Amino acid sequence: MALGNIDTVSVAVFVVLFAIFAFLGFWASRWRKGDLSKIDEWGLGGRRLGWLLVWFLMGADLFTAYTFIAVPSGMLANGAFYFFAVPYVAWGFAIALLTMPRLWTVSKNKGYVTASDFVKDRFNSKSLAIAVALTGVVAELPYIALQIIGMQAVLAVLLVGLTGVASKTVLDVALVLAFIVLALFTFTSGLRGAALTGVMKDILIWITVLTVIVYVPLAYGGFAAAFNNALHNSVTVNYAINHVKKPIPYSFLPPTLIPAYFSTALGSALALYLYPHAINGSLSSEDKNKLKLGTSILPVYGVGLALLALFGILIYAVPSALALVVKLANGAVTVPALVAFTMPDWFVGLAFLAIFIGGLVPAAIMAIGVANLLVRNVIKEFKKDLDPRTESTLAKIISTIFKFVALGFVFVVPATYAIQLQLLGGILISQTLPPVFLGLYTKRLNGYATFAGWGAGILSAIALIVEANAKFGVIKTSLFSTPLGPIYIAIIALAINLAVSVVGSAIASMAGWRPETKIKEEEITKEM
């Protein structure tokens, strides 16, 4: 039975555009040619991306398949609280402007490829650098897995629309084939492939977002109709998705959730540019000023994210699309259902492909970031005689393996648990803030104290997660109840981390243990 406007035309457009996407990925190895046997050429695009490509590349990290799925789904299922994503990205870009140009400068001067390279020399500590690297690797795995979950939602709606059933075997085969293509062009083209395919992906996503947000309100009574329908149907939606019989607060934020809203937005903003893929993309810039320019116009994506969040309300204006979400009891199909029931068949194929490759491009960047960390900051610490060619080859192999580990993670771990684990990943990555961000601005932190702070932050984060969720393994919330109200656990753990790092450094200083660093201050502030 056909679903909405999905037909063979939709599938044909999807396949043709995916073929163009794959071609760009492979052709990228010829674009701005460099010696891809060197890790900075393969993993950082030779540090030759201009401001526009940096903008597209970093935007590719923000507008992902999971973003397309999770933010509207969160709005639909939980209401106004999920609008925290809007201030979070705005603050995140402000933090990026304060930190990434300095990290780019010192990385250029010293030949660094990862943030852990910087941490190692700044604190003269191999242990702290390895800790930062492994934290990034652990946090990145469920992040990639969630991109795949977003891709699954698109494929499922496409298959249901075409055949009436979403065969798990067909879904799995399609995902494996897509990841084989991704792995091959990432291996051969590195970050160049991610950059070029990111341009295509972002153009298609902007077309999708702007078209739907303009056309659907005009054709279906606007947001007035959507909010009016929400008043009468949100209880049904809440029960179908959350098994709770009460209205969902769309038009206001409950006062009890205000501390949770702001702490989650702040914690997420602090974590955003600590992820390996965000740092990797920033270090690929041609120069510091182009990085600043590309980053300064990223808030445009924040506007797009705000529009995207509204899809979770707009679906109420389209009863047939809302009925599918309720029938499947799955908020993840919010955007695919909205597109399928409102747009012409060819546009459905274009929009679904945009969301699908919106998972593949970030997955490529994330896998490259993880490979760089593991080779440069873990393997190389135990095998110091790695030559540049071997280093690059290992990074390519690890990048490939990591993609399929993430894919296997999705096949083995239920989607619900993958989403829960990603909450823990965001909390963990924020514990690398003192050595990475503060290390860019001060040399007063002691390496041992900062390592102890990292350990305290990680352990307290895990303990708070366990306490907040009754038992480990069933993570339903990333908030912890305090006298001030529910607070995002990342903020609490980071406060403990900072207290240990700062107090420990002060004690070490009084005891005469002066911080040691291999970096001169001018190497951070100006290009040598």
From TrEMBL:
GO terms for cellular component: plasma membrane. InterPro entries: Na/Glc_symporter_sf, Na/solute_symporter, Sodium:Solute_Symporter. It is a multi-pass membrane protein. It is found in: Membrane. PROSITE patterns: NA_SOLUT_SYMP_3 (PS50283). One of its GO terms (molecular function) is transmembrane transporter activity. Its main location: membrane. The chain crosses the membrane at residues 6-28, 49-69, 81-100, 128-161, 173-191, 203-227, 258-276, 297-326, 346-374, 394-413, 419-441, 448-466, 486-511. It holds the Pfam family SSF. It comes from the Archaea. Keywords: Membrane, Transmembrane, Transmembrane helix, Transport. Belongs to the sodium:solute symporter (SSF) (TC 2.A.21) family. This is Na+/proline symporter.
